[in-house]
Amino acid sequence: MMACLMMKTRKKTRTIYVGSVPVGGKNPVVVQSMTKTYTADTRATVNQILSLEALGCEIIRLAVPDMTAAKALIKIKRSVRIPMIADIHFDWRLAMEALRQGIDGLRLNPGNIGARWKVREVVAAAGDIGIPIRIGVNAGSLEKDLLRKYGHPSPEALVESAGRSIHILEELGFRNIKISLKASDVLKTVGAYRLFSKQYDYPVHIGISEAGPPSTGIVKSAVGLGILLSEGIGDTIRVSLTADPAEEVRVAYAILASLGLRQKGVNIISCPTCGRCGIDMKRLVAKVENKVKKLDKPITVAVMGCIVNGPGEAREADVGIAGAKGKGIIFRKGKVIRSAGEPELLNELLKEIKAL
């Protein structure tokens, strides 16, 4: 008999705080996303963050491309609850302004914001108020000398780039650091995080960069992040999709739930159907999904299309239904509790969910 595969123990990393949210150590993996509005459009940005908060997003990152966007941060912060991270590139003055505006974290690369004194100013200001810095290494913007050295953005090149930035901050006495090493290539990303986790104990933010549209991006993210999380690597997580950020949050929680790390809302399991199925499973599952999508109950609901095997296959579900042509059954933990006509199955299931 094959032994069950077990998840590795979570890698012990340092604990930092992004606002009031603890990251690293023994704390739960944190779900993060990024706004897709122009940050200076405060109404649109606040509305998007509030919608993500409702879905369970715990940290939000905002692009800060110019001073107008930087100066809008305080107004946005006053209207939302979750911590905000300012994403800064090239201009150290934007980082300084973001800190003055009350941001909870910075995402930047020390190497691309100019002279050493500029880095020193930002680090000193962040250190004075206890704001963490995420060093974001990306395969698409790797240093030219590292590309020449390794020939391509290999895992070794990504980790060396991260090490350079860490060294800069550590020399300035700053260790309130989080790291990300992202590529659009799943195996390169996994390799980089594995290598980094052997050398450093800083908390890591994991994600597959530019993963693509949902049809392919969800698969890439689930594979890459699933591998890392199963190996105990990852303190915050973002699923990067060319889609509404709400989809990023939903998928992130689905990945965590599939590994038994966290569950947000209702987990639906349903059979793929086969020649024995006598009901419209696709339609029924869609209705169940729509009815429970706003419920924040950490339960598993099964929707099965075969009354012969359905209860057994979904034995671990808290509650479920299994249907055949014209009729069906309702069960809890694999035990049948009653039967009902096919038209009543959905309502009967919802009654059981409400009672839990």
The SS-based structural class is alpha/beta
Instruction: Kindly state the number of beta strands.
Output: 15
The residue fraction in helices comes out at 40-55%
Unreliable sequence segments: 1-5
- Total helix count? 12
SSE pattern, N- to C-terminal: EEEHEHEHEHEHHEHEHEHEHEHEEEH
Q: How does the major sheet shape up? A: 8 strands, parallel
Instruction: Provide the spatial order of strands within the biggest beta sheet.
Output: 8-7-6-5-4-3-10-9
What is the oligomer described by this structure?
single chain
Assess the beta-strand content as a share of residues: 15-25%
Estimate the mean pLDDT confidence: 88
Shape, please?
elongated
Rounded to an integer in angstroms, the radius of gyration calculated over CA atoms is 23 Å
* Distance from first to last alpha carbon: 36 Å
